[in-house]
Amino acid sequence: MKYTAYQKRAETDVFFTPSAGSSHYEGKPEEMIRFTENATCMDPSLWALFVSQFRIGNTDDADGGWRIEYWGKMMRGACFTYAYTQNEVLYQILETTVRDLLTTQDEEGRITTYSREKEFTSWDMWGRKYVLLGLQYFLEICKDDALSDEILRAVCRQADYIMEKIGEEERKKNILYTSNHWEGLNSSSVLEPFVRLYHITNEKKYLDFSSYIIRMGGLRSMNIFEEAYIGKTYPYEYPVTKAYEMISNFEGILEYYRATGEEKYLVMAKNFARLVMDSDITVIGCAGTTHELFDHSRVTQFDPAFDGIMQETCVTVTWMKFCYQLLCLTGDAVYADQIEISMYNAFFGAINVNHNICKGQDFPFDSYSPLLNGVRGRLVGGYKDLIRNRFWWGCCVAIGVAGTGILPMTAAMKTENGIAVNLYFEGTYTQTLANGKTVRLITQTDYPKSGSVKMTLETDSEEPFTIRLRIPAWSKQTSLAVNGEPIKAEAGDYGMIERIWKNGDVIELALDMRVRILYAKEIDPAAKEDAICHFALLRGPVTLARDSALGENLEMPVTVMSTDGYVCATPTNKASFPTEQEYEIEAEEGIFTVVDYASAGQSWNKNLPITVWIKTMP
What we know:
single chain; 7-stranded antiparallel sheet
């Protein structure tokens, strides 16, 4: 039997759906996918080390740790990656580790790194969520029917054990008290795999347990789901503001909407996303300028008062995944805009392409992303030893592969009557239409270096369908044409091209790549002087940064001239390190240089800070 997480897909999921394995993209996205595949997924000894934590059975008892999460986090991202690459070596490695993990079940079906005496405390429930998710995602790619049945039995046994111990009955433990962290917010995120299990099995008990989790409200002191439904309180105003875990809970709400079709739950998730975008997403597409917390980052991102770790990679990837689910369910271009900004800035910037060493190891991902005179590689987030004093791993390291894995799923997607192009990568997208005919969309572009995108259609017969092209909200001057004929294109929406397509039809898109200037005072006029005297430069989806490796003094204020919010930028190539984009900006004090955020600070040198928010005069 072939399983899929949406075997029982509700009629609500009608806008965009991914086409796994139907696309090939060249350039940076392909490079990053292969990098993370090789760096994190292709080492059998690493997977064996993750499984060994479960075989021991109490590795997280002593410190209430989260070693329990690594296997499932990595498996989810690895399954995303396999769906794109179809790498058979990768598949065999994943199948082997799944079989290995199944041998760690005890007689009651528990797969955990906590003993019975310590279970359902600290991060146990959070980690069991990832065990369930990892197995569920492997079910989607599993080629062995007998193994699929074995996995499903294991997932159901684990879920049934949880339901036996956790619930509303007096003899059971309240889910909000299965952790002493974050008022149970982390434990409540087990909602997602329980609803997914209902999708797979159609067994109502799993949906009932999901309903119980939602009734509990996510926090002991506030029902965050009902608060989001009202849609007025910003998440940074909640009594608990842990960003990663909170977004994870709303990923579960979207699964619940899929299962029930009740509009209320989609409204909850959309309101939550809107409130986060309005209050906490920064110019690099992440949130949390105080550690890993929602903290009104939109206005604190240029405040020099806090210089600690910020902008956690776990938040970046989870935000991207959440926006991806909303994109699938709503077809709203705003979510693709969000994914793109996060991808080109916070996420690509967190990939350790230079194999820098941190804490004695070559981790493939950095955990935190600086904004104002900071450096990369300051700390490994979620840092735990897997071999005492010899080998460590981290939460952001484990989640990173899901970030690269989700990009091809987002780039071009099926619609009810055609294709939606969300991200502009060089390569080929192949789609089977509703009538069974296959078409190919060949894309030529160096975007986002330029805004020029050319797409050529290949088809064996003339076919009527619609191609949607995302027009980013920042592209105020856009041209779109088919075979030279202009098509309406509005910023923040999709250019809709509905026609009978013929082989060789050409779509040409030109996006507005002028460099935009964003002053801190435009965001928060009431900010104190040392915060308000900053500006950021943005070009298309890319945030530009100053890098002191270029020999410039980042503390020296600069004054630039702008016209209608745009500045003149001259391409240059003088950096001694690799960059995707590099420009000279003329200021009253002289010329200074900016590079794309992902390329800035990649030396991880503590003496060479970078800054997104550029100091200016009052």
